[in-house]
Design goal:
Chain lengths: 553, 553
């Protein structure tokens, strides 16, 4: 029996599903409907084409409809928009924008891959000609054309998420002044505040005007063009163009109207096989609501990797013979921010705190490769783990080199429910151009392991001052006298770690000692010496490195 | 009770152990004996210092004896060589090269980290002044001084292993002509022959004279200097210097003489806690024999990462309280070869074949980052896996960028006994500068999964010609007519994949069809089409890309 399968949406999940279906079933009738002009385009490459880093517009087209049709024998219909589903009749109503007609199509199986749409704030002026989204090829063409044609000098980007930061870099790369307006106290919500501070540092060092805890209150305009963005703080920014990067929401309204179950976050609800509440309708990609793999909570993760995987799984489950389950999204993401890379996987501290999940965190600052090999760059790694058994809960990394590698190893470990002791054992590839004999991933796991086994007690910068006030604790800087003289934490006394064995008698045994150094290693050694000598001592996670970044950015 | 622990050797395992011991036990007496002048130096950095990539000699010293002594309160004795162990008396005899005296030291625990020594072939002339090893700082100084001082033009490197290739690159970097003489048919023994071919290609493209399946038969000399290396093949190479990189053997003779159990490969035998046959003596690093984590066989793996880990574990097990086990080495290694990186983890095909372990292999050629993002470079990945359940057995990768990242993810997966279906699910970090929505690791796992689930039947280049002869099979090139015209495999007929659905009737159903394309993807699609149409068909792993490299290098 020839199955007729209709796929709604032809970008990431949809294109991936169509190709897999054909490879699995040479005989099925496969119709792909795409409301836009283009299928399977490089969504994630759009900012880089705008910035000129990707020179050729053609590079954005992973597949053209003609080529994909030929290769996979698909019935591809662009500018064909599904406007209604009749699940009981197994039909859909389609509006063909080419011909301006409505028509009906029958399906045996329907696969909804119709993605998500940018959130557009309700502001007067938002519909003006120099306010842009970065969603598809026409948006991209419009920005590029506008920037080239006009004598634009200043861009305001509303939203400091992934797209907002990529666009900030690219627009700056073209030579414009760039403002980012972000309502919360930090960019990149998957990062914790102190890790985001490293991103703030990079943005500001690269000349970006970053407006945190502020929002666009109104857009002032002159005829068809916005001229100023008025912020809630009272600031007014002169703007030649405005780019919206606030986030996206699932395009689930057609599914909702068809009576399919919609999740509490607005995405289509699917079971582990990516089947909706109607057994003939599957859904994949940004339009669905998924389970967070670590917490089990409902989540929206509009990311290309999971979308492709989901498309592939839905295809298998529709054409058979074997059903494959989708276990959930862990939220691995990465972004280039000028010369830095920020990456994350799993749960962050904010989420763990909000959910009441017990956790501990460590920060380390290892080098990307052997410290003596040219190009080695220091990165900052934060990992979160169960304080009892050390199970990894999440990782965040920022640095100039080698960040992508380490987040991928943590991502694999996290998926496989590894604890920090397991991760210590990972035998990773070492030669001086690539790593150290203890890779940064191992190093972070060693640091965390020492916390789980209670060889060291940690304290974090955000609780230091209240802790000192409440416990009459002493703050010790374990770096050299020279380092200390170049800048230290107010109130800290200096006892270099190498002098500790001859000077510990200066210290009181009845007070808590809080020790820091530059990155946390010497202070850890100091803690081990002091605790074995009978002192009450805590190591300050992340050291002076983290302290200065938090306080300045 | 204060324990007295004597550590023999102060480089990787020894230094790592000493630091960990002190952190765990502030009160132990820890003596570190090192027969050379230096401790904790950057062994793996030596070639890069010789080549001038690492500019400062001081960078090679991770720790000086003075600094380490201060930091960790150690009794460090350089130029102190252990010459005998009396295990029953718990004493060692030491020769102090500084004073020229012998003395005896008692221990509660002895930790042997005395490493491995280069294998020196028995050739006349091997002791001449311009024949060098690359083992330690004095060797390094000697090579560097000789190359700078003399008007050397040609170096001959004997041995194509890790050190041999690193030295070849560095000596070439200085401007000399470089010959590599390697007895087997390939460099880098952990790679399989066809993967090594990519390394041969890079070496030859970079102007290295590579002499495979050949060996130095004799060294011709003039007074104190070798002038020519005479090869078994009859070739004679004029040589201004000769560098030996044949491999190393464990320095286990003292342990053997003390009656400790020595393994069949010549390394000290240890239990899972790194304890030798004497319960007061532990051993770690290059001197021990370990278990291969994947095969369970005995193995020697003189690698810095495992050595550091073993030192750390031995330290924990000596000072307590908890014993930690060492599970084995998987053999993850990586080497920079000019503009390419070659990396490997786990078992290779040669070993699997020799051990009679069932396996299947795939080759894929994905890009390091999104293909449209500048700098994307194609790599070649080979993975080996169980043909029944898909369990990963090993991975080999070569390419210009992003190789280190992918081998680390495979290394983690391999350690955790993952199968290729698990690896398909890995949610790795994707943004265009770093990867594709399907990372190369995922892609390799998808390709392997299709073999395990029998969606495609593979055949490898090394068995094509005999297969065609025996089975009267037909060879099909599924690339475009243009690609075919630029070069194809003799005897192949050209049917582009996109024409297959209209041309399959040209093909016989009673013969086997062997299909290739450039990298293996289009031929896989062709196989899916043909097999569903009732043809007997096999995909040729690695495609024309692999074919040309195997045949040229």
């Amino acid at each position: 029996m020839q199955k007729k399968i209709v796929i709604v949406g032809g970008v990431a999940a949809g294109a991936s599903a169509a190709a897999r279906m054909r490879r699995m079933d040479e005989h099925a009738k496969i119709v792909m409907l795409e409301r836009g002009d283009f299928i399977s385009f490089a969504n994630c490459g759009l900012p880089y084409y705008i910035g000129g880093v990707i020179a050729q517009r053609d590079s954005l087209f992973v597949q053209t409809p003609a080529a994909m049709k030929k290769r996979f024998a698909l019935d591809i219909r662009t500018k064909n928009e599904v406007i209604a589903i009749d699940a009981s009749a197994k039909t859909i109503t389609i509006y063909d924008h080419n011909l301006g007609i409505l028509y009906t199509e029958f399906y045996d199986y329907l696969l909804l891959c119709n993605g998500a749409s940018p959130i557009i704030p309700e502001l007067s002026g938002i519909d003006k000609q120099n306010v842009f989204l970065v969603r598809n090829i026409p948006d991209t063409d419009a920005i590029k054309e506008y920037v080239l044609r006009s004598s634009s000098q200043t861009a305001v980007i509303i939203g400091g998420g992934l797209i907002g930061l990529e666009m900030a870099e690219m627009i700056r790369h073209i030579g414009l002044n760039v403002h980012i307006v972000e309502a919360s106290s930090q960019v990149l919500p998957p990062l914790d505040q102190e890790m985001a501070a490293y991103v703030h540092k990079e943005l500001r060092n690269q000349g970006i005007d970053l407006h945190l805890q502020d929002k666009a209150d109104s857009l002032l305009y002159d005829n068809d063009f916005v001229t100023h963005v008025q912020l809630a703080s009272g600031k007014s920014i002169s703007a030649d163009l405005v780019i919206l990067g606030i986030g996206v929401k699932p395009n689930s309204s057609i599914a909702r109207e068809a009576g399919l179950r919609i999740g509490n976050l607005g995405g289509i609800e699917v079971d582990e096989f990516l089947r909706t509440s109607d057994p003939s309708i599957f859904a994949a990609g940004d339009v669905i609501q998924v389970k967070n793999l670590i917490s089990g909570s409902d989540a929206l993760f509009p990311l290309a990797g999971p979308a492709n995987r989901q498309g592939w799984i839905a295809a298998n489950n529709i054409v058979g013979p074997k059903m494959i389950s989708y276990k959930g999204v862990q939220g691995t993401s990465i972004v280039k921010v000028f010369d830095q890379t920020a990456a994350t996987t799993g749960l962050n501290e904010k989420t763990l705190k909000a959910m009441g999940i017990p956790y501990q965190a460590i920060h380390v600052h290892p080098n990307s490769s052997a410290s003596y090999y040219p190009g080695a760059a220091q990165m900052t790694i934060k990992i979160l783990f169960d304080p009892e058994d050390g199970r990894l809960l999440g990782a965040q990394i920022i640095g100039a080199r080698g960040v992508d590698k380490r987040i991928d190893v943590f991502a694999a470990a996290l998926r496989l429910k590894q604890n920090v002791f397991d991760i210590q054992e990972f035998e990773l590839a070492y030669a001086p151009p690539y790593s150290s004999a203890k890779d940064p991933v191992n190093l972070a796991a060693y640091a965390a392991g020492n916390v789980v086994t209670k060889q060291v007690d940690l304290i974090h910068w955000d609780s230091i001052s209240s802790y000192i006030d409440n416990n009459d604790a002493i703050l010790i800087d374990a770096r050299t006298a020279r380092e200390y003289s170049l800048g230290s934490v107010p109130g800290a006394i200096n006892i270099p770690v190498d002098e500790l064995r001859s000077r510990y008698e200066e210290l009181p045994k009845d007070k808590d000692l809080l020790v820091y150094c530059q990155v946390g290693l010497r202070s850890y050694i100091a803690c081990r010496i002091l605790s074995q000598l009978g002192f009450k001592v805590k190591n300050i996670s992340g050291g002076y490195n983290l302290y200065t970044v938090i306080n300045q950015y």
